[in-house]
């Protein structure tokens, strides 16, 4: 907004100019052009800047002379002619020093206000052509790329500016816009030239690049710093491996999990983004959500077409009945709460796979949303805040329990595990509240009805489940609660309360599985301690297949993916991730957590709202 005084100034100037144009050569068209130019917001801003600079000039100190370097030189010559006193000699020596000479030269540059790069004057004949309006734009060449891409307009054959990268040199200049037609670069006409022939012209120019431009219809964008859309990438992207990217140099690479600020979404296929927190950097091209979804849809979904292997007779432990997900084995050091898993077990995985395949095939043409980007918002974590709930998921046998066990052993004061509930009888050494909470069927079913269980299932006629209550009990002790659930249950966890951090434990490739697990023994039936065996090739393949399916279905919920090849490396990576999670500061969380609709969804699902 212009101040009253500035506004008056503009009006005065405007009326002066208008009165001057009332000459015999007055043309309605020129008049309107001048009027619209003077009404331009940018012209007003220029007046404003001019006013401010004037103000500054009045306050600032004025140099006594503008040629101090020359005066110093003359003085030295004079002094040399005088006497040879020590002080005079010292002064002459001082004035002759290169540092001092340079200092005076800098002074003179400032005094003469000679900061502008010298650009050649606009040639007289530049505007003689018949075009309605032609712009001559001179840009000083720096190490920074221009930050614009060009293309040939298919219908007219003209070379036009395809994109201006936000924050780049062209964008900052404010002089070149998308849709502008380039007529010449450094005096070379671009007619009949291909875009790739023009790039060397730009590269060849030394200190300045001069464009002759026919402006396109330009609509002012929202400045990039005003667009506050942040997304977390759910896939890795490398422009070098993308043959469809319009300009590899203008594109940016990113990894899954990187947070990007989207600064331009005008184009349906290529957005412009920069790394979050890097406000001054030039934006880069990234595939838009729509483009990435299309690409994803065009890929043949692998699990859908995977041939079903026949089920060996020795693995028929669980039928395809309504029985809940199977429980997996427990190995290693006993830690309370580590003794059960509702994740798909290796025994039931094949049966489950069949139904997942069916679901995938319907969802792929229906509601399944490919994982491209998820909107995130910054959330400030303070030192006094409770820890976030850590959810570990992965196919059975991949090592979720092993990693939980190592975390608890490494720092029992920091990590805790919720104690599960069961309706079965207490066995041998088991302790109430340590190994399980032993409850009646009636109590368990009441808890189900009251939505007090995050997850539950039945195994051999007994219920097993994790209650919100037990998670809460760990959290109030100030520990980070670790739990493993089936990924389909994540959406029912009250995100605004627990701020779940989901870690997907992924198997490595089959060679590494063979290498690291060949001798590993696991309990294949927790009800029978004699049923210990080693992993088979089929177990490995199941693990990989199931991980792939989980990633396709639930990948958008994963905050971190850990590949559990070498267990020490995987554990270190997990621990580092969780330590970072505990640190105070800004964390990026899904934007939907802060939207009121989430609560509605939860209520309509009838889950997990009763207890807290
Ligand atoms: N990276 C690894 N290298 C070698 N052995 C591993 C590795 N990770 C886990 N194991 C071992 O594999 C076996 C299965 O691991 P674990 O019980 O943790 O799997 P899980 O994912 O919890 O599966 P489930 O829920 O079926 O028990 C255990 O004996 C464990 O010690």
Automatic annotation (TrEMBL):
Against Pfam families, the record matches this protein to: Guanylate_kin, L27, PDZ, SH3_2
Q: Reply yes or no: does the keyword Amino-acid biosynthesis apply.
A: no
SUPFAM superfamilies linked: L27 domain, P-loop containing nucleoside triphosphate hydrolases, PDZ domain-like, SH3-domain
Sequence ranges assigned to domain SH3 in this UniProt record: 226-296
Q: Where is this region: Disordered?
A: 302-325
Indicate whether Isomerase appears among the record's keywords: no
| Name of the protein described by the UniProt record | MAGUK p55 subfamily member 7
Q: Where is the L27 domain?
A: 61-118
Annotated family: Belongs to the MAGUK family.
Tell me which InterPro entries the record gives: GK/Ca_channel_bsu, Guanylate_kin-like_dom, Guanylate_kinase_CS, L27_C, L27_dom, L27_dom_sf, MAGUK, P-loop_NTPase
Q: Taxonomic lineage per UniProt? A: Eukaryota, Metazoa, Chordata, Craniata, Vertebrata
Residue stretches making up the Guanylate kinase-like domain: 387-579
List each copy of the PDZ domain by range.
136-217
Keyword set, alphabetical order: SH3 domain
